[in-house]
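Appendix B: complex inputs.
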Amino acid sequence: MALLEVEDLRVSFATPDGQLDAVRGLSFTVESGKTLGIVGESGSGKSVSTQAIMGLVRGARISGSALFDGNDLLTMDSEALRKIRGAEIGMIFQDPLSSLHPYYRVGWQIIEMIRAHDSSIAKDTARTRAVELLRLVGIPQAENRVDDFPHQFSGGMRQRAMIAMAMALNPKLLIADEPTTALDVTVQAQVLEVMKRLQEEFGTAIIMITHDLGVIAEVADDVVVMYAGAVMEEGARDTIFYDAHHPYAEGLLLSLPGYGTRERLVPIAGQPPSLISLPEGCPFRPRCPYAFDRCTETPPLLDVGDKDDHGSACWLPADRKARAGMRHQPATKRPVAKRAAKK
Amino acid sequence: MGRFLVRRILQGLLVMWLVTIAAFCLFFIDPSGPMSVARRIGGRQATTQQLHRIIHDLGLNQPLYKQYWHFLWGAPGRPGLLQGGLGRDYYFGEPVTHILYQAAPITFSLAIGASVLWLAMGLASGILSAVRPRSFLDRFFTTIALFFYSMPTFVLGLLLLLIFYFDFTTKLHLAWFPAAGYVAFSHNPWEWVHHLILPWMTLAVVSAAAYTRLSRSSMLDVLGEDYIRTARAKGLTERRVVLRHGLRAALTPIVTQFGIDLAVLIGGAIVTEQVFSMQGLGFEAVQAINNQDLPVILGIVIVASAAVVIANIVVDIIYAVLDPRVRLN
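Resulting structure:
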């Protein structure tokens, strides 16, 4: 049995302009000890969906199911869910400075986490554990830095401290919501490294939410590509990177700069749709370079290719060549014209 | 922290010194000569003979810097401000400090009790509103707050007197609340509270309204912060999230407002003291103004500005206690 099975998750908000459907029938599973990458642009519903599962979204209508160890997180009472938050499912967020309480010492915040779930643990023991955790995530002189305030830490150290806190009770699942977005590239790599190491050591499953395909390539086992609150494509990491089927996934990959190449990036044309008034049929249709008449009908997640875990919400044929012929403009990256050569 | 404190206190002393200069200039400098200064000090009914005596006693013929020195430090037989002297009140014929000593405890009692009450009422209703915005409770508190916010103090004071003193006593024959007066805490603590309840309620209800709104908006802001989401993600109880993580951060603007309000109140709760006939600083100030009794006015100005300066220093200290980023910078 999978650790977390999310089935047909729907999250909507009542706004003055009408009902906003942030997540529209999202399903995914996370296996123990594995990393699921959820990728998508801002507003695709990737953060809202996990926060809704954890009961951290207020004022939303939520339906569907999210079985964690067989218990539905969406229907259990708030006290039971509270006990799971932190202890069984840890979370880290995008901006580590604003995510740590500015008025409390880093160590205090970790100790609070430990004692919130087991008040029988003595303060000293919890403190020793906090130092140990900080050392584990690579904070130098952890026994001194434990008494620092968050603003005395650097950006990378803050995110490490967040990871230390989230991992304090050895949770089965860590939800990392854009954990590297606010960090420098070099620091990003360090933070990902720490997460990978902890995953190997403790067998924690990770949901890595990001808009950065580089991060996905680095850590994910499986990938879910989200757009406008729904899954566009899912599959193993290599399948998504080398054999993407959905035009949106392809668009994301084409807009990714490659290392050492001088090719013009191909951005996805247009803007993401309003979640209040979605286009009929496939939500990506207005921006899709392959759109054809059938796209006014919403495609379900269809099996593609020979791999059984590869699904794509697109009517296009599975065959790559047949697909390429249906594109309105060429999809290949072109080399950047060298201006120097002209002179 | 130590250096921060010393710097703040020195700044406060500087402000107080400037206040004494300003007050001195207002009261003791007059282009038409010492006689008109003496008339202001002596009051309306002083005779020419008395005025000459005042000029002689206070050395109003002497150069200004000497007069200021006398005012600040004192002259033989006449302690100045730094020695705790504020001169003599010629109207009542007693030292100004004497009058202030009698009036100040009344105003302090009024201010302390009322501010504790309004802070408690304002914070509690504000937090409850913020935790469930747009709920029935939130709307209820908002309505109540706006109602009392727009009610003048004297109306509320008289209304409370009418209901709790007059109606209770005459119609229900329950003499629960006295109409006026003040009993010192040292004399009888119960009677002290007993006499102060209605004035406290008057001041507190009017001010609590502002604190309900302030703490609601401050708390709402804080509850939207990322670190509150973290606190919830840690699996803390909602109570702890709100009170330990939310309130601590939401207190900063409330402390600022509280410092200002309390300081202003210590300068005299003029209307409330009038309504309940309590002879506090506000009452004395009004009386002194009516009598053109400048020494008392001067004394109250000094006390009121000291209250503002001290309150600001205390607010800064509380900031530093609340927010480590202030402490360490």
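The CA atoms of residues 38 and 46 of chain A lie 7 Å apart.
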